Amino acid sequence: MKRFRRHFIGDRAFYRQVTAIVIPVIIQNSVTNFVNLLDNIMVGQLGTAQVSGVAIAGQLVFIYNLLIFGSLSGPGIFGAQFFGARNLEGFRDTFRLRLWFCATIFALFVMAVLGFHDQMIGLFLTGEGDPAVAEAMLGYGREHLLWMLPGMLPFALAMSYASTLREAGETILPMKASVAAVLTNLVFNYLLIFGHFGFPAWGVMGAAVATVISRFVELAIILYAVHGKKIYPFMQGVFSRIRVPGPLVKAVLHRGMPLMANEALWALGVTTLNQIYSMRSLYVLAAISIASTISNLFNVFFLSIGNAVAVMVGQALGADDMPRARSTAWRLLFLAVAFCIVIGALMAALAPVFPRFYNTEEAVRGLAAEIILVYSALMPMMAISHTAYYVLRSGGSTVLTFLYDAVFNWAVIVPFAYFLVKGTDMPIITLYALSQSIQVIKSGIGLVLIRHGRWQNNIVGAS
């Protein structure tokens, strides 16, 4: 029992550090996802075509968001280790590099959307159903996606600042900015979707405009705190130059390109899976959208552990303290699984409740509830996979991370789901459960990789 406690439980100092990192992230993400749920319900009052159109646009925005997160991942593993080694100029250089990456991704994504939006949206409209309904979904998806574009640059900038601050252990400011943004989004959704208090009733366009406004609010709060009040010494002088030293760029690209590719391919994999499921019916994506929005309320607990892994394990590796990095990784993994056993049970109990708030067909609500049940049963396995991903990433094992995450999804999960949809006539919920249950295999591989220990690398010692 003592050995178990030593390896998996930890002491008070460990939990004080975990709490300082995790609680603000949980609060931030909980508020964000709860407001997203309310937003989704508001759009859900407009009808199934509107829900589906916004859900399709959301799949494409999701790809952009993951591309941004991927571009931050490479500099991020260096940033956490630079901060752990007290190399603040190196830390600031990682922030400058994030800005260059995000600006490039923003420009490329906007050009792709402006040139090919109908083709991209149409990929999700191949399932059985009324062609008139499909045309309506296409129109709503196009409208929502195009109005979302102005908010994508402030989102990328805010995420660049937030990830940099978190790597320095500062989680409160990103939390405050995010909470203010989502509350702004909620208020303007109420005003602009339905036209309350003299505002125009813009429907799905109003939902997009509200999101754009909230993105600018979030960025403004962060910029004021960092550059107006100047309360973070490690960020002072960050714009004294914009050039990043060539050796660091090469090192980040060497370590980070697999992570950037991973995030892009992982997002495309999730989107492709949803597109495969949508081959069965035009309404499947609406059910998945409802289930995903609700599931995200509960995901915050194990997702927040990923932030703790990135900071705590990354800083221990940067300080060249391998025993602390190893014990921290196992303790955080155990904590994530324990969280998810409890949270998954609560999520399963509430599965039939949330879909009832949507003004859509009974079949859509029933399918959404079944998808939530499947997801809740797999939450502990997803917690293991998620924690393993961050452990591998923290030590710069980016090629292994790429193989573990994106390649596994594309080589195993996506082909299996496609085979089930095209090669069988089983009900959608059965094939969804079977394809998602491969997470059990992935989590087992993750445990083996953590135990092997090849991820324990100090990558900034020679940078």
Which properties best describe this structure?
single chain; 463 residues; mainly alpha
Describe the model.
The structure is a single chain. The chain has helices at 2-9, 12-44, 48-84, 88-122, 131-148, 152-167, 172-194, 204-228, 246-277, 284-318, 322-350, 362-394, 398-423, 428-436, 439-452. The protein has one domain (2-452). It is 81% helix and 0% strand. It has 463 residues and is mainly α. Helix 5 runs parallel beside helix 8.
Topology, element by element:
Blueprint: H1 2-9, H2 12-44, H3 48-84, H4 88-122, H5 131-148, H6 152-167, H7 172-194, H8 204-228, H9 246-277, H10 284-318, H11 322-350, H12 362-394, H13 398-423, H14 428-436, H15 439-452
Helix pairs in contact: 1-11, 2-7, 2-10, 3-4, 3-5, 3-6, 3-9, 3-10, 4-5, 4-6, 5-8, 6-8, 7-8, 9-13, 10-11, 10-12, 11-12, 12-13, 12-14, 12-15, 13-14
